[in-house]
Amino acid sequence: MRSALLILFISLVNLSPISAQEISFSLVCIDTLVEIPSDNELVIGNSSTFREVFYNNRYAINAPRFQHTIYLQRTIQAACVQNITHQVTLNSEAQTLTWHSSITQGNCEDLVVRQITIAVPRPPIGYEVQFDTTWTTQEAKSEAPVATEFPLNGVSCHLDQSAGGSFYPVPAVITTDSLYTRYWLGEALRCTSKMDFSSELILANMYGGDCMMRLMPHAFFDPITNTLILEVHNIWGGCRAGGRKPLALVVPRPPTEDFRVVFQEIQVDSWEEYNEQFLRKN
């Protein structure tokens, strides 16, 4: 009888609804050069807030469909940060959506700043959005990691615009032969040599501007957020007609398997402005 009651109790526990569950999110932007704003935690849930936050932002960020998606933004500033990981949970009992950030620090005075923007599903009406942070320390770490620029020379790929939509969807991250075959059928994507997906990957996107626009890409790996960042400077060419350009780049594979990828675009008024303000030198 006791065994039967125990089995029944366990069954009831297993059948009980889970009040908190992890939900997926996507990276919108990671700014490693930001000046600290007055608001370190922001909920961007409507068009007016979006314009207020991003009007003077150096990145060209598209507004989401706010009836389905909201943006969350937080700025982390601390000494000797080694690692930042994220988790977003939805708690139906407490009616909260919580962005958890786990931050590991070392033992040094190197200042680390990261402004991170993510997209999450809009929570139900009445839910509160919360920001939560957990801090841990690794005393053995005596310096903060830095973002490193990846080379983009060597193997290159070309997207054939005449192929229409056959190379969509973009932005795309091609990491395996099966993905390459699935998304890049026919002659839409042509690379100058055979890909080795064990050591490299393809990042592809479509960019809009004028008919003489120029694209200057830079790829970085940020070990603190474990993110591969493709930063494309979209330079205005002075043409009145509109234009679109596809871009496909072969990038070295980051040293970890669970990395994320974020596509970031910076709109620049002239080649001189790009050289003066945005050109990153090794």
Description:
- It is a single chain.
- It contains four helices and 17 strands.
- The strands form four sheets. The chain has a five-stranded antiparallel β-sheet with strand order 11-13-16-10-12, with helices on one face.
- It has two domains: 17-145, no CATH class; 149-278, no CATH class.
- It has helices at 2-15, 47-54, 177-183, 271-278, and strands spanning 20-23, 26-31, 41-44, 69-79, 81-91, 96-105, 111-121, 128-137, 148-150, 156-159, 172-174, 189-191, 200-210, 214-222, 227-235, 242-252, 260-268.
- The radius of gyration is 22 Å and the shape is globular.
- It has 282 residues and is mainly β.
- The longest helix has 14 residues, at 2-15.
Query: Globular, elongated, flat, extended or rod-shaped: what is the shape?
Result: globular
Could you give a short account of the major beta sheet? 5 strands, antiparallel
Radius of gyration over alpha carbons? 22 Å
Extract low-pLDDT stretches: 4-16
Q: What is the domain total for the residues?
A: 2
What class would the helix/strand composition place it in?
mainly beta
Percent of residues in β-strands:
over 45%
H and E order: HEEEHEEEEEEEEHEEEEEEH
CA-CA gap between termini: 74 Å
Number of helical elements = 4
- Secondary structure: helix percent: 10-25%
* Extended strand count: 17
Mean pLDDT value: 82
Order of strands across the main sheet: 11-13-16-10-12
Sequence-ordered SSE layout with sheet pairings:
Elements: H1 2-15, E1 20-23, E2 26-31, E3 41-44, H2 47-54, E4 69-79, E5 81-91, E6 96-105, E7 111-121, E8 128-137, E9 148-150, E10 156-159, E11 172-174, H3 177-183, E12 189-191, E13 200-210, E14 214-222, E15 227-235, E16 242-252, E17 260-268, H4 271-278
Parallel strand pairs: 6-8, 15-17
Antiparallel strand pairs: 1-5, 2-7, 3-4, 4-7, 5-6, 9-14, 10-12, 10-16, 11-13, 13-16, 14-15
